[in-house]
Amino acid sequence: MPSDRNDYLTVPMLEEIPFILHGFGTRCWEESDFESKPELAQFERLSLKQIHSDIVRVITALPERPLDGDALITDRPGILLLITTADCLPVFLVDVEGKAIAAVHCGWMGTKRRVLQKTVEAMGSSFGSDPGSLLVAMGPCIAADCYEVGEDVFSEFVQAGLSEDVFQKHSEKKNKYFLNLRKANRMQLAESGVQPENVSAVDLCTHCDDKLLSYRRDRITDRRLINFIGMPVVKFE
């Protein structure tokens, strides 16, 4: 089970790694809160203009200009990777041996474009990470029972060669389906060689849990859950 700090959630698997700090933000966690916690204030924060793509950014130093894309990977301590969500699935990957990390934004379009799978590949090509030893943490997202999509989404997934098993037909509405975003990305991880036992998840639905933010429920446009992972320069006990 994830540990709940009220302002952000963590998973025990990553908490056990001494050189990792991470959190899946709740609606209480805001950008200004990073400065209030010494262990997080030490970081340089890095985020993307998220565009529901398959673009993976390899970070070897802080960029001089804003970047777009939907995945960040780095092996540099002192950089906090941020991914924002409000129903989409945030995913962290950790290469413990190689000391490399990733943060990925997986909406339905990014999932269709295999952004998570491409992130695993990029960690291998950039840092020599072995997919079989990666640890993966999935944060809160909209659950399958709440994620109604149309025939267009179903067709795009099938045309992209993805499994129909991540969809369930709506029992009352014609040409409507429920999409299981977590299952779709778990399948991509398995296809990439990630071991199922190395994947943890915060099993909360953004649409159902009022301590989280949901675009579909709230129709918010100006707020997102802030999810973060980094390797500190200085270890805090």
The CATH topology annotation reads as CNF1/YfiH-like putative cysteine hydrolases
Q: What is the number of helices?
A: 7
How many domains would you count in the coordinates? 1
- Give the class from helix and strand content and strand pairing: alpha+beta
Assembly of the depicted chains: single chain
Mean pLDDT: 94
Describe this structure in words.
By secondary structure, the protein is an alpha+beta fold. The chain has one domain (3-142, 182-230): CNF1/YfiH-like putative cysteine hydrolases (4-Layer Sandwich). The chain has seven helices and 15 strands. The chain has helices at residues 12-15, 38-41, 108-112, 115-127, 151-159, 181-191, 215-218; strands at 3-4, 8-10, 21-25, 44-46, 56-59, 71-74, 79-85, 89-95, 100-106, 135-138, 148-150, 167-169, 176-179, 199-201, 225-230. The strands form three sheets. Strands 1-2-3-15-7-4 form a six-stranded mixed β-sheet. Strands 5-6-9-8-10-14 form a six-stranded mixed β-sheet. Strand 8 and strand 9 form a beta hairpin. The mean pLDDT is 94.
